[in-house]
Amino acid sequence: MANSLILAAAAANKSLLAAPSHCHSFSLHSNCPPPHHSQSFPYKPFLHLHSLSLTSLHRRLIPVPALDSDVPHPLDQGSAVKVKNNRSKEIEEWDSWTAKFSGGANVPFLLLQMPQIILNAKNLMSGNKTALLAVPWLGMLTGLLGNLSLLSYFAKKRETEVIVVQTLGVVSIYVVIAQLAMAEAMPLPYYMVTSVVVATGLLLNFLNYFGMLNAGIWRFWEDFITVCGLSVLPQVMWSTFVPYIPNSILPGVISFVAAVAAVVMARTGKLSEKGVKFVGAISGWTATLLFMWMPVSQMWTNFLNPDNIKGLSAFSMLLAMIGNGLMIPRALFTRDLMWFTGSTWASLFYGYGNILCMYYFNSVSGKFLLAATAGLVSWIGSPSILV
User: Fold this and answer.
1) Which residue ranges make up each domain of the chain?
2) pTM of the model
3) Average pLDDT, the chain
4) Contacts of 328 by beta carbon, 8 Å cutoff, 6+ apart
5) Between the CA of residue 245 and those of 248, 251, 362, what are the distances in Å?
């Protein structure tokens, strides 16, 4: 995989090396090839070509600005993967490989909720509804909203493999929430509202992906998930540290008012172009920050109640580490800063971080930790990730 990247860069620079240079200066972000100094490497032309290849790769992988993270098809914006008017065969191959990695994340994410779903089903069938009270419905609802927001984000970018991942996340978490409602562990009115939102969101995303949805309806849906995400995030962060801080809904109320005001101002032309782009990027970033906050909340809970760590599944944490790690190459290839940030954080802190905590509290063996560490280091440190 690393070889295909280097070959792609070499192909991209072949015409540049052959043509006479009209550039008087060179920088990492310029569109001009670097000057050829044969004196620097008189007997090692390959090293010079290799240096150019890596330079081209680093230039290609410059992150998309945070406010442009939700731009559809970021690879088509500029010269990121274009070689004159045709994409090289090597770049297409790497595009295919990273898409396969993202698609492979379906397996761990599909299995992630299965142990909980099976356990809940057994308890329901045996009449042990009290056991389902151990599953926090508010936390599951937060994760569901995050998945639904990211589904809309990736549907707009036409990332098919990740759309499937997020859809699986929405459906699997909704199944758990339905089980909680059956056990009366979740209030019925909240479940009914959640059901309507999930059904509407899946339908709208499906129609939008296949180009069958009115632009105005899709814009309204984006505004809705923007307001919901921005309202939930501060409230969840605040609630994590209760009772060390007063229990209050004030953070959620304030952020809700601010979100509604921002959306209204963006739609009525009261904001600058950068302000409108900022509002458009809120939903994706708030969903990502919700997922990034999950390991913080979990580790804080582990710190306060070490005995509760026995209720964590090491296998589930390993699946979370693997699933998010498989999406890192695609995030790098598409130069998506938001996607890269969320996937890397979740793999390192939510998956591996919780495994480390479980080892510290003697909940997993040293061999399990060593295997997880070796797998993570070999994947994150591989040339296919770092280049």
Assistant:
1) 2-16+27-93, 105-213
2) 0.65
3) 75
4) 340, 343, 344, 347, 380, 385
5) 9, 12, 30
